[in-house]
Amino acid sequence: xxxxxxxxxxxxxxxALGVGLAVASAPGIAAADTADSSRDxxxxxxxxxxxxxxxxxxxxxxxxxxxxxxxxxxxxxxxxDNGGQDSGLGADDDADSDGDSDLGxxxxxxxxxxxxxxxxxxxxxxEGTDLADPQVTDAGADEDTATDDSDDVVVASxxxxxxxxxxxxxxxxxxxxQPAPQPAPEAPAPAVLPMALATxxxxxxxxxxxxxxxxxxxxxVIELLADPSPNVLVIGVDGTNLxxxxxxxxxxxxxxxxxxxxxxxxxxxxxxxxSNPSWTSILTGAWGExxxxxxxxxxxxxxxxxxxxxxxxxxxxxxxxxTSIANWNVISAIAGAGANPADEIIDIGQIAGDTDxxxxxxxxxxxxxxxxMAADPMVPNFVFSYFVGVDENGHMYGGASPQYAAxxxxxxxxxxxxxxxxxxxxxxxxxxxxxLVVTDHGxxxxxxxxxxxxxxxxxxxxxxxxxxxxxxxxxxxxxxxIVDVTPTVMxxxxxxxxxxxxxxxxxxxxxxxxxxxxxxxxxxxxxxxxIAMYGYPDIGTNIALGVRTIAATVPYIVYGLTESLxxxxxxxxxxxxxxxxxxxxxxxxxVRLIGNLTYVVTNVxxxxxxxxxGVTGASIFPLWPPAPPSVESPLDTAQLCEGDTAAALPACGxxxx
Length: 657
Prior knowledge:
The protein is α/β, with parallel strands linked by helices. The protein has 3 domains: 35-73 and 240-492 and 526-535, Alkaline Phosphatase, subunit A (3-Layer(aba) Sandwich), CATH 3.40.720; 88-200, no CATH class; 540-612. It has 24 helices and 12 strands. Strands 7-6-8-4-9-10-5-11 form an 8-stranded mixed sheet, with helices on both faces. Helix 15 (329-335) links the parallel strand 6 and strand 7 (344-347).
């Protein structure tokens, strides 16, 4: 089935209606200046667990230094993407199906209506005119008139864009450029028809991504940086809806990073929204349809065939220090799987009595700060940090609950402290970190299943990429996908992404950046508009993936129940209670046997359903269930905070300087 093939179309439609209500076709129309974006505008934390509010405020000041030092490089960075090509909105000309064309026709009508609404209150766009007040003129003129009259332009209020000079029938790209201060903008060129916008506005064609993968070479951007020891931090926040992050103004650190970097309000419609398949996609660069991961049962053999980012980095350059910090043992097990596991794996179990997982998330944040400050500036460093608390609260209370919002705020505060540690480390070493933030899926608003199906709330994902030398500040890019994380990491360290990868390096997608006219209300609104445009996949895909989720969940439940019962019996055995403990020991054998046999039967059915619904990597072998993930527990925070370096960390009760 072609479930994955159309994943980017929703993104393309979203940018046409949400981010680019209209696109100006004048070569001289300038994009909004993003040079003033910095973390200090939104990096003050609201509360503190280990560093407190004072810690977060100090982090905001440190973050300001990080961005201010690099603002002079923004224009060079925007122009350097894709070997010096201008940053713009990429396009694909071909439609994959008649259904896509019909959807484009509907979109064109809706876009035209939006343009009419935007006309009210507009001002002329000309020399010396502020882009915050653009003019919206009639896009319905005939082609001859549009060709001759260069004064007509279509610009949506709140967005700064530029289109090519070709006629709409010939247009292949819509570019967005940072302007030179002089001379003043040229007269605008003809308007681009709404239908062309719908077709060209960032639609992710699989053929385009395949071409990028097949032509992958050692990235010139790394050569430009000439950095022998790059540093990359990937932060995974499970089950987090970007729309809810943006809706809560308390999430200042999330939004500060969005202002400083490039953000994709992405969707994985057409792919499962179960956690393990999505995180495997993030950590390998291949969709679950290839890897064969269909549920949350950890299958170690998967990562022999589909190497993790840790394995790929270690194979490319064993000098790279790779670290994984997570509070879900499946993530820790993935980091330890394959031929070359992560150098350091810190698995943090749920803290006793921490029913909402916030303290356990704090422990992840503390360990991440320590890993950053302990990083050796003489070697390349890769750190992956994973937070499960938001997802846990989504399952317990629903995505629209106050508890879910509180869990996001808690991660936001931890994010601020991590960024503070990054800024302090950069100030001490003179080096730079690239920061990627990603989620695996969203959450249903109500209490219940949480996720696993294809509603827009569940398929909603995001990717944030921040490095002032590599990614434009305050930009939106609807071509980013979560599967691009591993190829991007490989590229940042100077490697070549695997040709088997479904993802591409984010550094090759800079031409699809678009810029709202400011990095505050317009940026927040544009992201929300893009998210709001996502919908369900076609009914066939929706039904197929729903059936797959149900079939895949049954063996997972059986597996978890078996492990829970045997673990409980083992605890009784360990207590050495007279008569009771020996009976419990005897009961373990039949309980595990029955559980394993039930797993085999249900898993065979699940794998068959998976194969029939497009999972080419599905297999009934090995038949027997794998052992549960087993990762050695790390030192506690008190032990981690011993030493001179750690003493300066907010995680250890002091503000980093």
